[in-house]
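Hi C.,

You asked whether I'd gotten around to modeling the 247-residue construct. I have! Everything is below, sequence then structure, no commentary in between.
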Amino acid sequence: MPLDLGQNPGMVETGAQRVGILTPMVSELAPFQERIELVEDGPFHRGKVGGTEVVVMLTTMGMGPAADAAAQIIETGVEHVIMVGVAGGIDAETVSIGQLITPEAVIDRLTGESFRPAPTPGVTPQGKIECGDELITDAPRLAMLTADGVIALDMETAAVARVCEAAGVPWSVFRGISDFAGDPLIDAAFFAMAKPDGTMDPADLTAYLEADPTRLPRLMELAAGAGTAAANAAMAAIDAIKAANPE
């Protein structure tokens, strides 16, 4: 069953006139492009949700790029930053594929720092997300994280949180569970095929599948789960912005 820590819901920065949305991969940007009329402006995509101007930016994967993107989007004058994307679950008894995660805290794996997002209306914070560039697959380490209340992993949120807090800008995070850490398919070789924006070279992917055709059904299942997770996270962010500042 999903973990519920029983926290009281609060308010995202109500009335913000400009909100920044950061998302690491092309597949995570796509749900926004499908649901919001966005105009490309250099590295940014600008549009409107309800009564709020939104500035959407692709960060690419990793803590360093995420921090750089957070600094750039803050310079546009946004009053609130939302990190949106997918995350890897740890325990299938705690979270499920496609499930939306709005954590009570995010932790920087390298420094141990913990950051708390601004509360979201009507949403109960749930567990912790640990963030770092390292791909974690070994069961004992994952079990230790579960014991510490970590329910999911990502590669960007803590870096964004640090930049936002240093700048005095409120931040939130919506992540959807796309897969589970330790999945045999998502090994170092698979991870290495991904470009910074999450896309893969078709030739590399073809070679990967030709080496073991039995990977294809699982890969299709993984892609479907990632699509659902990205869409759920994007819709949650859009709904939160609408609720905070209706048109």
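If it helps when you're writing up: The radius of gyration is 17 Å.

Thanks,
B.
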